[in-house]
């Protein structure tokens, strides 16, 4: 993906896609990969964050990659379900790593945003009406 | 380019008040030139985002860091988002000098800021017009409510104002289209306040929306407001009032309107022999070519501070300090609205109720402080907005399938209530605008220097607003009450007023009771610059009424040969 500020390798991009899918997996409804949530995350960090936040995001991403390797000896993409659980546990005990936390929080927040503002979500789950044509101040929930 | 340079009337600015001047003059057969310094934004054709879905905005309506960095001032404006930022002036394009911090929010295009205004339209009352005389600040308004009441009615019928007849002397009723409903919590709060206070009211905020269009509105080519609440993008239905959808097309239909865009007014030309203004010098924003246009009457509606700038820059032997500025008060006594504070809270009632669709307005608390007599340690008072709505409850702590079903479920959270203050500020000589002695813009016009600030009266008012609204919220059983003071600089309220104030006396004011310059009677100012005091109401409706009234007077005087 072409970015203006962030330098993200193809491997990192693939890893991010995997991480987003863990956050919001495909179920009966599309998952993060189906809506390219990871590209939305990168776009928002690249375009809407300060240079400092971008630097910390990138550093946090590198810390996350090392954490995966340290815990499982593998990249996130190649991890089994058990190995992913061990990564989750490792994250829980790494809460003092501020950049790692910023990276994970950002990825999660933007992934949620990608899904809840997607065409699928706003036409099939919680339908967005461009032209409501009505307002009722008090109706049954 | 127009085929002639001579007109009956020149109107400077096509925004909310300029559009009204154009409509009034063209409708009565006067050849009218409207000069707009910005680009053309044509109703329907030039609303590029109006039908976009949320997912069609690449940043989901956020403003990018690059744009925020380049535009520290305009980025603060609540409506400056991905869907409407093309209607706002970017900081670097039109610099100004902040002697004190001032967020100057501008829209340079057909319709000016009427395209993306907040559409709140509350009348002033007698208490507002008599305020300066009673409380001893500024100068006495040369008009009273009764002078303006018929003109409020006149503009309301044409613009289309949705409202409820509330029968309050502090906020007189008008010619209303039906109101929308208030939400459960807004109605509940209204009842609580009524029970607890004899002089406080929570009412439906009147707004310029066609809830039920009348014949006149259909003739304007407008349709019923569809409750999209995306007004800042420009409305494909013409559901709210703007110059673009209402007054400018109406004026065009008469065949008497000539409109020139990219026309930056340099100054008003004063003829020493004739003893009056004869025209306007204009610079083409793109070609830099200078052109003169002539007319019997000139209406200055460039938006409050730019109107000050044009008059200050209109220098002649007779008026070396700016047109009409014999007393040296031009540019002084600028005031605004104090929007610094908010109060928010939650409410657990009406758990089984929600709102449905979207509302384009909310509730409104008219001023209740110092109305009948002075009763606090600060002068005047504040009005407040109030709204109560409900969002979906979303716990985003988890991840995976658990998080996903959390996002997809439809479970409602508590009601959120919020209020913002709209405080009257006291016009002072020390709050002023002037021309910078050295710096000039791309068209060779001096930059405007703005020196406007709060004072202790405003601080006291913030404190009182927070106390009173918190007390009212508490009585309603709202909880988690939070107060805030943004300390935002003046200007972000987008209600800057004054500098060319109306008054009885030419030695202490610039304009007479008909909005004519005391000393150059064929020049009228009917935008925010004319305001002697600010009261608490959103001022646009008052500008509309003042403009229609002044245009009517101008035409009577022209017919008599006095202008």
Question: What can be said about this structure in brief?
Answer:
The complex is a heterodimer of chains A (141) and B (563). Chain A is mainly α.
Q: How can the largest sheet of chain A be summarized? A: none
Mean pLDDT across all residues of chain A, rounded? 96
Span between N and C termini of chain A? 43 Å
- Indicate the overall shape of chain B: globular
Question: What is the element string of chain A, with H for helices and E for strands?
Answer: HHHHHHE
Number of helices of chain A: 6
> What share of the residues of chain B does DSSP label as strand, in percent?
15-25%
Category by helix and strand content of chain A: mainly alpha
Radius of gyration of chain B (Å): 23 Å
- Measured by DSSP, the beta-strand proportion of chain A falls in under 5%
Helices and strands in order:
The complex is a heterodimer of chains A (141) and B (563).
Chain A (H helix, E strand, L loop, with lengths): L9 H14 L13 H12 L2 H22 L8 H12 L5 H19 L2 H7 L9 E6 L1
Helix pairs in contact in A: 1-5, 2-5, 3-4, 3-5
Chain B lengths: L5 E7 L3 H12 L4 E4 L29 H6 L26 E2 L27 H4 L1 H5 L9 H15 L1 E2 L13 E2 L6 H13 L6 E2 L10 H5 L23 H11 L3 E4 L2 E9 L4 E9 L5 E11 L3 H9 L19 E4 L1 E2 L2 E7 L5 E5 L5 E3 L16 E11 L8 H8 L3 E13 L7 E9 L5 E6 L4 H20 L3 E7 L11 E3 L16 E2 L2 E6 L14 H20 L4
Parallel strand pairs in B: 1-2, 1-10, 2-7, 3-19, 4-5, 10-23
Antiparallel strand pairs in B: 6-15, 8-9, 9-10, 11-21, 12-17, 13-17, 13-20, 15-16, 16-17, 18-19, 22-23
Helix pairs in contact in B: 1-8, 1-12, 5-12
């Amino acid at each position: 993906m072409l970015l203006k500020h962030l330098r993200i390798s193809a491997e990192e991009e693939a890893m991010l896609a995997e991480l987003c899918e863990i956050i919001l997996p495909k179920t009966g409804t599309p998952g993060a990969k189906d809506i390219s949530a990871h590209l939305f995350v990168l776009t928002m960090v690249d375009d809407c964050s300060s240079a400092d936040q971008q630097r910390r995001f990138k550093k946090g991403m590198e810390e996350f990659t090392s954490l995966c390797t340290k815990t499982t000896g593998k990249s996130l993409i190649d991890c089994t379900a058990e190995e992913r659980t061990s990564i989750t546990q490792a994250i829980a005990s790494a809460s003092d790593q501020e950049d790692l936390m910023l990276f994970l929080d950002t990825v999660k927040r933007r992934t949620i945003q990608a899904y809840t503002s997607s065409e699928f979500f706003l036409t099939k789950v919680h339908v967005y009406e461009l032209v409501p044509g009505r307002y009722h101040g008090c109706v049954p929930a | 380019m127009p085929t002639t340079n001579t007109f009956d009337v020149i109107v400077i600015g096509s925004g909310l008040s300029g559009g009204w001047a154009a409509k009034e003059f063209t409708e009565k057969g006067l050849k009218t030139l409207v000069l707009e310094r910005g680009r053309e934004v044509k109703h329907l054709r030039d609303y590029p985002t109006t039908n976009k879905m949320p997912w069609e905005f690449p940043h989901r309506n956020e403003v990018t860091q690059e744009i925020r960095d380049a535009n520290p001032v305009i980025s603060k404006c609540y409506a400056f988002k991905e869907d409407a930022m093309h209607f706002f002036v970017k900081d670097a394009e039109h610099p100004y000098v902040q002697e004190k911090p001032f967020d100057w929010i501008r829209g340079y295009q057909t319709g000016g800021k009427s395209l993306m205004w907040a559409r709140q339209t509350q009348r002033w009352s007698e208490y507002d017009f008599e305020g300066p005389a009673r409380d001893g600040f500024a100068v006495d308004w040369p008009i009273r409510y009764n002078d303006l009441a018929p003109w409020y009615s006149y503009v309301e019928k044409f613009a289309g104002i949705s409202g409820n007849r509330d029968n309050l002397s502090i906020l007189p009723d008008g010619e209303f289209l039906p109101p929308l409903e208030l939400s459960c919590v807004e109605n509940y709060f209204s009842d609580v306040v009524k029970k607890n206070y004899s002089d406080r009211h929570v009412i439906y905020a009147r707004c310029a929306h066609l809830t039920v269009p009348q014949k006149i509105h259909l003739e304007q080519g407008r349709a019923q407001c569809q409750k999209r609440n995306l007004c800042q993008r420009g409305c494909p239905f013409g559901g709210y009032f703007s110059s673009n959808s209402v007054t400018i097309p109406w004026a065009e239909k008469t065949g008497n309107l000539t409109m020139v865009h990219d026309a930056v007014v340099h100054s008003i030309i004063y003829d020493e022999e004739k003893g009056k203004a004869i025209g306007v010098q204009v610079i083409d924003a793109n070609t830099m070519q200078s052109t003169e246009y002539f007319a019997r009457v000139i209406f200055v509606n460039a938006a409050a501070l730019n109107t000050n700038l044009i008059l200050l820059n209109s220098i002649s032997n007779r008026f070396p300090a700016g047109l009409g500025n014999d007393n040296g008060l031009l540019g002084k006594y600028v005031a605004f609205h104090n929007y610094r504070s908010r109060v928010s809270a939650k409410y657990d009632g009406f758990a089984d109720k929600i709102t449905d669709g979207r509302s384009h307005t909310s509730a409104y608390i008219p001023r209740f402080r110092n109305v009948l007599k002075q009763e606090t340690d600060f002068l005047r008072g504040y009005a407040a907005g109030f709204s109560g709505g409900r969002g979906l409850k979303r716990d985003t702590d988890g991840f995976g399938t658990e998080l996903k079903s959390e996002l997809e479920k439809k479970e409602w959270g508590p009601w959120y209530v919020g209020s913002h203050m709209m405080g009257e500020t006291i016009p002072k000589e020390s709050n002023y605008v002037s021309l910078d002695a050295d710096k000039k813009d791309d068209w060779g016009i001096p930059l405007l220097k703005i020196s406007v600030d709060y004072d202790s009266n405003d601080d006291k008012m913030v404190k009182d607003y927070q106390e009173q609204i918190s007390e009212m919220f508490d009585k309603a059983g709202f909880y988690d009450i939070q107060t805030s003071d943004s300390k935002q600089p003046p200007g972000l309220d987008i209600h800057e007023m004054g500098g060319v104030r109306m008054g009885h006396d030419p030695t202490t004011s610039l304009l007479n009771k008909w909005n004519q310059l005391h000393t150059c009677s064929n020049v009228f100012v009917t935008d925010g610059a004319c305001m002697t005091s600010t009261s608490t109401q959103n001022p646009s409706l008052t500008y509309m009424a003042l403009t229609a009234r002044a245009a009517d007077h101008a035409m009577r005087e022209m017919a008599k040969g006095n202008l």
